[in-house]
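> run fold Acyl-CoA synthetase
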Amino acid sequence: MSSLFPALTGDPGARAALRFGDRSLTYAELAAAAGAVAERVRGRERVAVWATPTPQTAVAVVGVLLAGAAAVPLNPKSGEKELGHILGDSAPSAVLAGAGEALPAASAGLERIDVEVGGRGPVPGDLSEEHHGDGDPALVVYTSGTTGPPKGAVIPRRAVATTLDALADAWQWTGEDVLVHGLPLFHVHGLVLGVLGPLRRGGSVRHLGRFTTEGAARELNAGATMLFGVPTMYHRIAEALPGDPELAKALAGARLLVSGSAALPVHDHERIAAATGRRVIERYGMTETLMNTSVRADGEARAGTVGVPLPGVELRLVEEDGTAITAYDGETVGEIQVRGPNLFTEYLNRPDATAAAFTADGFFRTGDMAVRDPDGYVRIVGRKATDLIKSGGYKIGAGEIENALLEHPAVREAAVTGEPDADLGERIVAWIVPADPQSPPELEELADHVARRLAPHKRPRVLHLLGELPRNDMGKIMKRALTHG
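> ok
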């Protein structure tokens, strides 16, 4: 297999590779620092990385990959119980962290290796297949664990390379691009796409440390060409745009604005497009599959869709009994199943869960529900477990109702769930953060609003008013926290 990072293992030069705040590394400096890490971890199977939003994390992960080991990114905000489970399950031989960073008690028994961004070590120049096979593990990324303890998805080197190359094709992503983002580095979005992606292209990444609209505007106005974010970040951008001409100018000048990790509400799409003339594009992926689909840079940026399957990815929608849906009418809801070189190999130490995740013909069951338009564009309507509502004989996706609710001027945030109903099977429940808490919308007003935009059977029957919606660290709404009180 060829090198994951040709710009590092070929002739690293003085071009900028990474910048975190005021600390930047050229490709030559990154190669030396990552080479020093590789020397320390060569021959090990798995190495944990304390994944703070710092250059040390990037150096650590690249070093582990150069050595042919697998990196296990650790969320610094994980509680002791979760962290203990992840370390016990993945059994890393060491933990990499920035010098001086305090590590929690759960890691006390592990060898600690300090990462120096000014480190100097030999760079392994030959990453050919005889040394590191494309099926060898590159990362073990733990899933959020909504139904039990987190599971470690083993992501092979092949999946990292093919997903990043497929995105390069879809987004016309080159070494000339400069990416800015403020995403955490213990998830696929921030780490694989946001750090390894630019490095594979020979481009540059500027990490904001913590996302702010001011930081994004500053970097885009100073030469950055791409912005990656999650819907919470784009919502903040949409809110700030009317009073911030510098932000509007920055976004208007960007080559590509990409949103992921959850659906971006259509209302925010439209507000950003109206203020900047630029459309945010969405893509769809998971920890286990890396990236599956995207709106292409040379395609139509259609709000509310995640585009078409990426090169090399087979995607199908299936009925509950596993029958493939062949008519793409933009209405028929099915579960997304995918197959391709972008997939993970297994859940670590969980052969039962691995077997259950795949069909007999090798498709991964995503648990995501979608419809597909006649031209192949995919629209996600929600998770099978929490977002598919069966009401009055209809299969209804929560996502399209949430989008409709967000178009109402009295609604700031919205989530939709289902609850048991003796007559309908399930009734639609709206959880709303009002724009003005002193003057919240009435259920009848919102129900009529949804019925006019979508269909009468999609109107909410129950309304709950909240001060805020529960979200995880990627900005995703935690539906289970709503449905269980």
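Residues 126-130 have pLDDT under 50 and may be disordered.
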